[in-house]
Design a protein that fits this description.
With 291 residues, this protein is of the alpha/beta class. It has helices spanning 3-12, 58-69, 82-93, 112-123, 147-168, 185-188, 194-214, 233-237, 240-245, 262-269, and strands spanning 49-53, 73-78, 99-103, 128-131, 177-181, 220-226, 280-283. The protein has a seven-stranded parallel β-sheet with strand order 3-2-1-4-5-6-7, sandwiched between helices. It holds the Pfam family adh_short_C2.
Length: 291
Amino acid sequence: MREEELEQMHQQARGQTQDQQPGIEAEMHPEPVYDDPEYVGSGKLKGKVALVTGGDSGIGRAVAIAYAKEGANVAIVYLNEGRDAEKTKQLIEGYGVKALALAKDVSQPENAQPIIDQVIQEFGQLNILVNNAGKQFPQDDFLAITPDQLKETFETNLFSMFYLTQAALPHLNKEDSIINTSSVTAYRGAPSLIDYSATKGAITTLTRSLASNLIEKGIRVNAVAPGPIWTPLIPATFTKEKVEAHGEDTPMKRRGQPSENAPAYVYLASRDSSYVTGQTIHINGGDYITS
């Protein structure tokens, strides 16, 4: 989309909140841009099978659609957002590939193997694992972060990556790819998202360490670190005032759209990035980092 269109959408997203995590995309106004009409696939992932957690909405939906445009069959995992998941499934299938939507809580270790088993049963293979599911619970007071909140944040954002990657690994082969969703908060911190930022820092280190561990198998492991992106997580976690100001502190003076992240995930899943592993791509509107 053109920059002026994105800026207009930024101005339209005013003062809305939701009362559940991780949020419902169908209730957002304007709806996030998940399918950029200017992005045209070229068969980069033809014959591949991808699994995207948190694939019902937000960045996960945009990635799933971009993969479908590139010829991959795509499985998505979601928590309880059935309406969003069904729409994403239809969008994927609209590009002539197969789709599978699985309602599973990835934070629970007993769900990892059944998820992978269903993907293999449906498609016969797995080539791309995108660990994208996440939650965040803002707390201005560090003392207000309870053990239960800390546990839920880490189980969803970080532990799920261990569970799913361990279950998926026996099915991944040379030239296959693992892509983790980190965050700009892993690099610059966030005073009201301390536990969330801690998980994202751990994800960045996990990415580097796992890349080193799997390099001899020819399996590449990389990450994408988005900045402020217009996803259901934003109205589901912030006040109206913070939703209105979301992204305005970046040099581009606006929030990003999920579709602006998707090409990076395509790059990291395709042969285009054959010499790239252990790296993080930063998509944050110019919110530059020095570390």
